[in-house]
Specification:
Order of helices and strands: EEEEEEHEEEEEEEEEEEHEEEEEEEEE
Number of helices: 2
Strand order of the largest sheet: 6-21-20-19-18
Radius of gyration: 19 Å
Strand content: over 45%
Distance between the termini: 44 Å
């Protein structure tokens, strides 16, 4: 059992979390499949449950990524904290700290078939505009070495573009070895790992270390032990952060035992989240519906001072952050 100390070590929190349920997205526009819920990755046996996900009506039948854990062990005292309670004894965001203004925020909009860019006017206001258009159901995105990678869920392709000084450069697209690609991360070997919505079919793509171009992309023929948790978790400053759709919160967990020892952070601007990215003490969170939230991270690892970056996105899915040169 791990004891975490928050708020100047005056509050002792004993945390015990046993199960992360993952509700996986469905990108099939013709047959709405019931996504599976993976059991805790603490367990040696995987049991699959089914649940219904309400389809979002749109011209392309948008299926957002509503895949986040559902806590099943609250009787053991999972600690819930809110932005109000967490800020009583924590270091709040300093309005004179302009570091948030150093980063542009990229958001994929599934129904608009585009990626938008949001640039800060000041510490609390952003101007957003379309950045990359002509996509086909853009799902998750990431930025690595000034290359923007976008999964197109509707036609099973991967688009990648140079973004020098956050100005769109040359773009290329390749076919994805897996259908309906949904998740992507950069591995420690600087490869792109792609998964479909079921997290059962994966592919590894080799990235040129100089140009960022993708040379080969092949399916991984191994026993898959991955879950959506693996793709959606963010490791930052010794903690693991994960969007909890069911509780409209962000789970903050010990990075040694990721399925236990957690707190749920709640804020009025975090609304059934299903994606997030963290960079330089700021978390950027995609909410279900149309908004993206930014929260600062205090010295204890707790989120606070959350604001809405924009609430007019058209079915946002992925989020990435890049330095403003």
């Amino acid at each position: 059992v791990l004891y975490l100390y928050f708020f100047n070590n005056q509050l002792l929190i004993k945390l015990n979390k046993q199960i992360f349920n993952q509700v996986l997205l469905n990108n099939d526009s013709n047959n709405a499949r019931k996504p599976s819920i993976a059991s805790s990755h603490n367990s040696s046996s995987q049991s699959l449950l089914n649940t219904n996900v309400k389809n979002v009506e749109s011209k392309k039948k948008f299926s957002a990524i509503l895949s986040v854990n559902s806590l099943l062990a609250h009787n053991n005292g999972i600690r819930k904290i809110s932005s109000q309670s967490s800020t009583n004894n924590a270091t709040l965001y300093n309005e004179s700290d302009n570091s948030a203004q150093l980063y542009a925020v990229y958001v994929s909009e599934y129904d608009s078939n585009q990626v938008s860019i949001c640039k800060p006017e000041d510490n609390f206001h952003y101007i957003c505009r379309p950045f990359l258009t002509g996509l086909v159901g853009p799902a998750n995105i990431l930025i690595n070495n000034n290359i923007l990678y976008v999964l197109n869920g509707e036609n099973s392709t991967l688009t990648y573009c140079a973004i020098n000084n956050n100005i769109l450069g040359i773009c290329n697209s390749i076919s994805s070895p897996v259908n309906n690609p949904s998740y992507l991360i950069i591995t420690t070997n600087n490869q792109l790992l792609i998964s479909d919505n079921s997290v059962k079919n994966l592919a590894l793509c080799n990235i040129d270390g100089v140009t960022g171009n993708i040379s080969t992309c092949n399916k991984v023929n191994t026993i898959n032990s991955y879950t959506a948790f693996y793709f959606k978790k963010i490791n930052y400053a010794g903690l693991v952060y994960y969007p909890n759709y069911t509780n409209s919160s962000i789970d903050i967990c010990d990075n040694i035992n990721e399925s236990a020892n957690c707190v749920d952070f709640e804020d009025k601007f975090i609304i059934k989240p299903f994606n997030l990215v963290i960079l330089n003490k700021f978390a950027y969170i995609v909410n279900t519906g149309s908004s993206v939230t930014r929260c600062s991270i205090n010295q204890n690892g707790i989120l606070n001072s959350c604001i809405i970056i924009n609430s007019n996105f058209n079915s946002p899915v992925g989020v990435a952050v890049n330095y403003l040169h």
